[in-house]
TrEMBL record:
Belongs to the 'phage' integrase family. Residues 1-84 form the Core-binding (CB) domain. This is Integron integrase. PROSITE patterns: CB (PS51900), TYR_RECOMBINASE (PS51898). The lineage of its organism: Bacteria, Pseudomonadati, Pseudomonadota, Gammaproteobacteria, Oceanospirillales. Residues 102-316 form the Tyr recombinase domain. It comes from Marinobacterium zhoushanense. SUPFAM superfamilies: DNA breaking-rejoining enzymes. Keywords: DNA integration, DNA recombination, DNA-binding.
Amino acid sequence: MANSPFLKTVEDYMWVQRYSRRTIDSYLYWIKYFIVFNEKRHPTELGDTDIKRFLTFLATERQVSAGTQSLALNAIVFLKTKFLGQTVGDLSGYSTSQKQRKLPVVLTGSEVSALLAQVVGRQKLMVALMYGSGLRRIELVRLRVKDIDFDFRQIRVINGKGGKHRLVTVADELLPPLREQVKRVGAIFTRDKAIEHYAGVWLPDALARKYPSAPFELGWHYLFPASRLSIDPSSGRLRRHHFDENNLNKAVKKAARDAGITKVVTCHTLRHSFATHLLQSGADIRTVQQQLGHADVKTTEIYTHVLKQGAQGVKSPLSALISDSMEF
């Protein structure tokens, strides 16, 4: 992604520090934007005033969401403190984003069924898991074989958003296809081991040191592996990465179009639908919060709005007129 010597150096540093591909891409985008905004001055020359001016611009001119503004701030703080070794002072006083969070798009049960009917094979299993277990897209593709607990019918989500671990439910109906998927992964792993220079699956440095044989154990391999081997950019070793998350989102969008669903559907729509349907079936909000991995129950409460009839449960007066005397 980096197209300048400086950004390439930042990118290489993040790879060495084991940042994820998504984080690297996001941080490089905002770092580049920050530099360009400040007339391409070197970041070592930019201070707290320049940072606050940039953040204010994002809020007032770009009108980005609070989450996006926070991401930009994180990228700049990383650049200044981690990469450049400088300090960042008091950044209070900049204009914060006031853009309200959107209400989630939720599919009906029949729409979920129609969408599932448009996908086949492992992609169908992946889509079913996102809806049936409320998994984020990145959590799904990062699953390892060992994360599926067939005995207790649950999935261990390791290092989800915010680095948190949690247990989520898995539908009984998905256990047989999950066992078949594990067999397929085993067959791929057997072929990979026979290839010269194959370095096993990637593990974080701490785990690789603690379990030196783990990269060559089936349980640590990705449940949904990539279709081909590739060079790990952080080490230069030959490995098999996980299924590409962007391709998964494309598959979901195509399935929605093919199913004739007019709503804007993404992978996260399936997670929204999981939460809403759980509440609809009588699950308490704390249980849904735990399944989703939300730190604050207020984040989960947004799904209760979807369950109310009409807006805030108000019945339109037009309904009485139509039922009494009007036809369309």
